[in-house]
Amino acid sequence: MTDKLSLPKNSVMLSTDFVYGVATASFQIEGGASTRLPCIWDTFCNTPGKVIDGSNGKTACDHYNLWHDDVELIDTLGVDAYRLSISWPRVITESGELNQAGVDYYLNILDALKAKNIKAFVTLYHWDLPQHLEDKGGWLNRETAYKFRDYAHLISEAFAGRVYAYATLNEPFCSAFLGYEAGIHAPGIIGKEFGKKAAHHLLLAHGLAMQVLKKNSPNTLNGIVLNFTPCYPESESLADIKATAFADDYFNQWYIKPLFDGEYPKIMTELPTENHPEILDGDMEIISHPMDFLGINFYTRAIYRADAGEHFLQIDPPEPRTDIGWEIYPKAFTELLVSLNNKYSLPPVYITENGAAMADKLVDGIVNDQDRIDYYQQHLNAVHDAIEQGVQVKGYFAWSLMDNFEWAEGYLKRFGIVYVDYDTQIRTIKDSGLAYKALITNR
Ligand code: GBH
Questions:
Q1: Does the CB atom of residue 299 touch ligand 1 within 6 A?
Q2: pTM (predicted TM-score)
Q3: By C-alpha distance, which of 6, 12, 121 is closest to 74?
Q4: How many other CB atoms sit within 10 Å of the CB of residue 421?
Q5: Ligand 1 pocket check: which of 297, 413, 420 to mutate, most ligand atoms within 8 Å of Cβ?
Q6: Which secondary-structure segment (H or E) carries 212?
Q7: CA nearest to 226, candidates 304, 131, 293
Q8: Which atom of ligand 1 is nearest to the CA of 415?
């Protein structure tokens, strides 16, 4: 164990072309809720029992006011890039026009990044859907996809010349499945008949926005960010292997296969028809619009066994686990990247999120998060191994720049490489942040 991060001497991840960054999302850090329209996460937070500590995004890390210091902090870390998301309800009015005050807020951030030579990776949708759109059905309403296209059009015009890469959506699996099927994320809708319908409209929104971005912003890298939780069988029994393949199609391949193959996984035929998405002529062509990059988020794997009633059953993960209960299993990261590269003809890949929640303690101005350093070390090695096996990985972003609102977990789980004291809003770079900085600046 060492408090440093390292890579094999000849690793391409030590070249200065390899992009290192830190990532955040608007609702998780901004606060400033009174200066934008309400979103589905405001409503969700206000519904008792949904967020574990009863917290909300009204203040969060107060990045709305502290953005300037935070850009300095990002610069201090020595990174090449910053991945941020745009709050749709901050930049677009209810009648669909640009809200100039909201746009200016981001223009200031983008200009500050540019002045420091930090590449801006902008995500257009990281889960904060305007509430007025949810009131009309949200992602269950096909119209929302066209509203998203219009938003992408206006914002890519307004941001011209300031963005290095656009991701349309962050993790459509989470929006669709967690939001409209399991109900553990906003808007909290539960029912197997909804998830795949929401997913289809999200993917359609992505494809429509891709068309717009290619036209308005031909010089940026335009793509999407997907999350993967690779599926492993509990045993080598045929039943467990089959159940696992089904889960993989349901949770993972469902979101990538339409993008590259223009079709959903074959398991569609095994789903009851009332659970099917509504696919109109031409949708799959829109969805499979060519992309300049694929963003991949990885945290953990999941283990499944066959189940009589349902198709599969997820079992509790073994040790070692992070503070949020997710197994630490870096081998799945390499295997994921290699398998995706074999299955699909991928554009350049960026690891747009990877990181760990740990039970951090701030003691005398220091956060000794050796456990998080170990997690990063193992996962950087896993990316290196995938590159050695032929996967074109061009960059890596740590999740997250700083501790923030961890969705249904509220502020109880800390993912930052920078510690946030929510009472004082003082930021302290954790030992993992210092190690990350050293790795990047010593290249
Ligand atoms: C990302 O979501 C989000 O983009 C980001 O906003 C968030 O803060 C960050 O990760 C940390 O959560 O139940 O053991 O099978 C990741 C969401 C995490 C969802 C892993 C599926 C499966 C874990 N995914 N999870 S398990």
A1: yes
A2: 0.98
A3: 121
A4: 11
A5: 297
A6: helix 192-216
A7: 293
A8: 11
